[in-house]
Amino acid sequence: MPAIAVLGCMWGDEAKAKIVDYLGGDADYVVRFQGGSNAGHTIVVDAMKYVFHTVPSGILYPRTKCIIGPGVVVDPFALMNEIRALEAAGIDFNKRLFIDERTGIVLPLHMELDRRTESLLKGAKIGTTGRGIGPAYADLTARTGIRMIDLAHPAYLKRRICELYEYHNQEVDPAQLKELLDRLKDCWKIIKKNVTQSFEVLQNARMRDAKILFEGAQGTLLDRSWGSYPYVTSSNTIVDSVGIGAGYSARLLDEVLGVFKAYGTRVGEGPFPTEMFGNVADKIRIQGNEFGATTGRPRRIGHFDAVLAAFTAKLNTLDGIALTLLDVLSGIEDLKICIGYKLGKKVLSSPPSHPLDLQKVEPMYMLLKGWEEDLANVRSLSALPKNARIYLQAIEDLLESPVKIVSVGKERSQTFNTRT
Fold it and tell me: Are residues 229 and 359 in the same domain?
């Protein structure tokens, strides 16, 4: 059975969870390998909406086991709330959720630091979710962070938390410290049965020839090293992060599937070369329900950017593309795909690395005719309108990667494989 990485390849919100859900019906394991509760993954099954922040979205399938890898940072209190909400919706977690003992911990202090940092940035606000993810990763890098297994050692945990407050020049109130330690103790009592070394779980799964899906949390253009820095997330999101964040080398992957929307979106600050405004943007935002699952913020809207998309396709060595929300473009008369940038007198075929240069580029567009037909009931490539097929072919050609999966609606059933 294959090991498949499903990666968002733009600025996130590409509907990765829907593709994981589509592929996950026969998956043995679904693994999160980076990010934290700043992720917002939404799946709709039989008109029931499920929103995931830390729990891998494969949990909807009763036989699928889910792993939160060591590359993830976990807010234990938020995780407990998420588990309770999903259990209330009928999801069974018994012996199905594994949390690596090396995962980092997000504390209330990290949320406070997140808000403070954002307020101090005058000219380059990042637009974070405020969930404390960045400061938690920063502390792990500084070797001052807290890890899941620390919760099993109360005296050590207390000392580490006190040192963490001191590191950030924060006074810790004894009563607040006791309350925090008591809450963490209560949390550990509940989740310790789920905590393990996921390396062993995954290696055993590989030996059994199990099907494993690796689920990216944020998009490639938010990668800490390769994204539009500094307007990025605080972890690495590209395919090679699977090895770092899950302990399963990317060399062992059988397929890398990149998820793209049929148009562009971005949440928060940062350059967005193909951003558009006005009636068409408003129509796409409403038809696509382009509001953040974590924050509720309206997403910025843009034309499909094949320059950035081709860059991420090569960076992740994609074997194929999953194109989502194609149905949202129905009824739009003229469509544009960005095929190049002008920067001053230069014509660029790849994106500049500095945000000020990316902000200044002038997109060069390919113009395509749209279609009027409703795609909600389309279940094959041949059933798509001619202009929709031309649109897909243009994306394939520009990204040099085949479109293998197309999504035409919110429901699990509104997804099809173009190769069958």
Answer: no
